[in-house]
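Follow-up to my post from last week.
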Amino acid sequence: MLEKALKGSPNYWGGLGILGVVMLIGLGAYLKQYDEGLTVTGLSRDIPWGFYIAQFTFLVGVAASAVMVVLPYYLHDYKAFGRVTVIGEFLAIAAVSMCMLFIFVDMGQPLRVLNLMLYPSPNSLMFWDFVVMTGYLLLNVVITQVTFGAERKGVAPPNWIRPVIILSIPWAISIHTVTAFLYSGLEARAFWMTAILAPRFLASAFASGPALLIILCTLVGSQTNCQIGGKAIQKLRQIVTYALAVNIFFVLVELFTGIYSHIPEHMEHFQYLFFGLEGRNALVPWMWTSQVLGVGALVLLLLPVSGRNQRVLLGVCVAVITSIWIEKGLGMVVTGFIPSPLGGLMEYFPTVPEILISLGIYATGLAILTVLLKIATTIREELETA
Amino acid sequence: MDKRKRSFLKVAGSSIIGVLGLGWVRPVTAAQVPGATRKPVEALTGKRLALAVDVKKCSLEKGCSACIDACHSRHNVPTQLQAEEEIKWIWKETYEHAFPTQAHRYTESTLKQQAVLVLCNHCENPPCVRVCPTQATWKREGDGLIMMDQHRCIGCRYCMVACPYGSRSFNWQDPRRSLGDQLNREYPTRMKGVVEKCNFCAERLVFGEEPLCVAACRSKSQALLFGDLEDPDSEISKTLKERHSIRRKPALGTEPQVYYLV
Amino acid sequence: MSDYGKIILGLVGFLVLCTSPFWYQVLSSDGLPAPELKLPVGEQGCVESKEYMRALHMDLLNRWRDAVVRDGERIYVSTSGREYQMSLTGTCLGCHTSRADFCDQCHTYVGSENYCWSCHVEPINLRVEAR
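User reply:
Got it. Predicted complex:
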């Protein structure tokens, strides 16, 4: 199948070329970090986790959201998702790869990362995260390989793959749950210590992932002869709408508990996030942007215009992704450290190398996705013309 | 693709993975040595080693830093780093920051401004140990010290995220860059990318000597008491029975083993 | 199949490339100077036999590391019944006083880098006596 990725239009190669350049720049920045240590980042003793771990968290959500197309298609035999499903699974593969890279670049001693397997520690959620992420990657690689291979040959996929697919559904839920548990079980950090963190992660994932899928499907439709039906897009739009509504509800629920209870250790974090604390307010404009985009997108999604007009729908999808990216990729992680358990008020700003490395990883993920989608679309075009 | 080519690639691929997998067996099974290992007879042992800080006696306030200097210089802890990258095993904190839930608006001014000595609490229920994905930090059987293996640490900093006391420091850069020639050659430094913290001077306890901070304070204010809490006749046990003591963030259930006599 | 020639050529090329360091050594006139270990004078022997140390010193060091760091043990009783303090800088480098004249000789020769010295400090006269 891989040979299909080797023949493509100048657009395809140009795109991959640009991604390759960004990847190389990221690699250069990483070599600097490898040489000098994590001092090149904006992290500090008070804020030991930042941009990398936050991107990891956001992308676990994107990976898990594949379940939103896999579940209706395989469990409820929802035929309209036939063509979207493989795109969702490929997106999951790309996202999990990025997750692993983000964890890797966050390590202080990357060469020892295999200690995770040499000294397995079931009491650590990071160990479980490693296990479920690796498992999810394998599941999706096997499932796409087998189902798409069968589709190409025009035969039904073998029977044994069905239980594997069914297994991938709870597995998808598990990767984001475990990622939430990474945070929510820590007595030191009141901001994350909320039972709703895992459900919130899932809700925001099921809004941002399918929004990304709508954009991807539209892109695939405009660049190739593989059209994803309008029915599938409308169903995805519905999923985004419900998930986004639930996410906004969850955020409000959490705000209520955190603020009404008036426990300083809980409230101060929300104060920092939305209003600033003692003049420290780097995240305030971001968070309000996120809220406005989220609520605005929900209103538009509920109006019929987003169903009729493709441009409006695409705009809404961009708004949803941006809103949730700010929420998870900027606000969620860092705010847990501000103020610190000793009342310290240090802020965090990612540095240039940190951003270049992150862009490099995003470019790697996009390149993986591009190649996978290229293979899928080429084969489907061939099947249709044959 | 040709059927034979395909199965060749499959076999070749899985063979390579298998050979790579075999490479793992060695590090796990190796390290059988002919001789035997044991503890020195003079080792200072105890069932629950703990420290008591007499805040009233301590003269941190008056500019004394004998304990901190002794610890940091002998353990090769760099002291010239910026606040963001600071490494601290034992340090001075205000009462308000050390005991955020206990200080209130009308706390007596002597106490509120009081400098408090803080360090790793060697918790009975250590969150750092719970989260470590490689067992690079663990609670030692026998005396309950929280140990750290810098050979094993992958630098994920999960333990720093989990510690409610800010007692763990990360080497954001090579510590030797700022240590210069001021090395204590009898103790290793650390390398960049690993976490470190107070070890209650395990390297001294094993030869029957008390921790450096306690030894340094003995000739100054005599504000530090170190000993076994499970031994009812130890000085620390007796003192804790007689005087009022508090611990940092007791509500979290970590059971700190550093007690403050106030 | 028609691609046999190409495949064989590719495999041969791959093998040559993989083994090129060896060919380079054989063909280059001067070659790499063999390691010259300076052994301590007036010592009866190492903690274990020369043969064991030569082949498996890394296992011994790993065990010493784990015993000291993880098990809180400090004394090594060798097969000959002699007791040593398990200390890289105190015991090992107490006799082998120079890392450059001893460790690095072979380690540099075979290109096997160890990271002991990123943390452990080379001592100056820090010898710990065996008991």
